[in-house]
UniProtKB/TrEMBL annotation:
Xref: InterPro entries: QueC (IPR018317), Rossmann-like_a/b/a_fold (IPR014729)
CDD domains, sorted: QueC-like (cd01995)
Pfam families in the record: QueC
TM stretches of this protein: none
Enzyme type, top EC level: ligase
Lineage start: Bacteria, Pseudomonadati, Pseudomonadota, Gammaproteobacteria, Moraxellales
The UniProt record lists the keyword Metal-binding: yes
Top-rank taxon: Bacteria
Organism from which the protein derives: Acinetobacter pseudolwoffii
Gene Ontology molecular functions: ATP binding; ligase activity, forming carbon-nitrogen bonds; zinc ion binding
Named cofactor requirement(s): Zn(2+)
Chain positions recorded as ATP binding sites: 9-19
Name of the molecule in the record: 7-cyano-7-deazaguanine synthase
Length: 222
């Protein structure tokens, strides 16, 4: 029997690559979050991707929009169309901590051995919860805070993209058969899932395809 993993899936480029990577190693359960984000077409992408892959998919509702504090959850804050110094306004406070906490609960409930998350410390937007130090600290907390951890069966936290450039992430995904035309990465995609082409996520994605020498299959707003 294959080991089981919980995979955090947004429907974007990185997390979809992670899902494909994980499927080669684990029986996967994907979880996504409707957290009050500006665009929810990424969730439509996640649903379609998991259906095509034959992977169980659960969507968890969290109202981070009620808190605001980020351009991704507060519509009164504009998504910037230029690179920002420091931690950008698109950072959602404690988002990965919250997501991983739910994944931790799911791993215990579904008896998973690993949690797979597509954080990246190379081509990323400067978010503090995408650093290896964060994952190490969360894994230490998980060993103390869970039944499996206390019983000596600590969960593995798999971060296959952590030290890869965006170009190498794309190459990895292509090796695993990922169809990137089905993914949505834009912070403010329209109702059809078309990307703005201007936000930080779009810029990193565009440059990744260019650097990988792969045609960009992203659908952009005219």
């Amino acid at each position: 029997m294959r080991p089981r993993a919980i995979v955090l899936l947004s429907g974007g480029l990185d997390s979809t690559t992670c899902l494909a990577w994980a499927q080669a190693r684990y029986e996967c359960i994907a979880i996504s979050f409707k957290y009050g984000q500006r665009s929810t077409t990424e969730l439509d992408a996640a649903k379609a991707l998991t259906q095509a892959a034959g992977v169980e998919h659960r969507v968890i509702n969290i109202d981070l929009g009620n808190l605001g504090g980020s351009a991704l959850t507060d519509h009164s804050i504009e998504v910037p169309d230029h690179e920002q110094a420091g931690i950008p306004i698109t950072y959602v406070p404690a988002r990965n901590t919250i997501f991983l906490s739910y994944a931790l609960a799911a791993a215990e409930v579904f008896k998973a051995e690993a949690i797979v998350i597509g954080i990246n410390a190379v081509d990323y937007s400067g978010y503090p919860d995408c650093r290896p130090e964060f994952i190490d600290a969360f894994a230490n907390m998980a060993r103390l805070a869970t039944k499996v951890g206390v019983e000596g069966q600590a969960l593995k936290f798999e971060t296959p993209l952590l030290h890869l450039s965006k170009a190498n992430i794309i190459r990895l995904g292509i090796e695993h058969g990922v169809d990137y035309s089905q993914t949505v990465s834009c912070y403010q995609a329209d109702d059809q899932g078309r990307a703005c082409g201007k936000c930080d996520s779009c810029r990193l994605r565009k440059q990744g395809f260019a650097d990988a020498g792969v045609e960009d299959p992203t659908r952009y707003i005219p």
